[in-house]
Amino acid sequence: MTGETCNQCHHSLWDHHHYRVSWEQVNDQQVSVDQTMESKWKAAKNAKDKTETLIAAGKKTLNQLNSVIDRATNELSRLADDYSRLSLSRSFSAQMEKADRLLEQSYKGMEEKGVGGEQLEKVRESLDVMKKKMELVKGANAKANGSSR
Predict the structure, then answer these.
(1) 128 domain-assigned
(2) Is 138:115 a contact under the CB 8 Å cutoff?
(3) Model-level pTM?
(4) Cα gap 100→106, rounded to integer Å
(5) Considering its fold, how many domains does the chain have in total?
């Protein structure tokens, strides 16, 4: 990073920072045709049986996707908590505010997409914890600034 923008993505340095982080791409492989469901669908004798088979396949896929979302939500909550524990220094409060805004945006996006209540509640709890810690940091900063004058 040099000057006022990031060399990699050209965002303002105020918008983000690059840390020594190892990024890992995880490919989520999904089978587009479940062979068991396909054979059940082919064996179905009428439209009702075929429809029931398709509904069962849809429910199975939905459950798998909900499981992925649950794991990601738990990881987001854990990371937010870890991040908020890193430091309570004055210079860190700006980073906490950025993380709070990011979590708030993620929460709003999840709300708009109709994510389940349990997942939203986990993110909301992480946000509440982050906000309480930010208030603590701001209070400590204000007290330190008041006593140094």
Answers:
(1) yes
(2) no
(3) 0.43
(4) 10
(5) 1
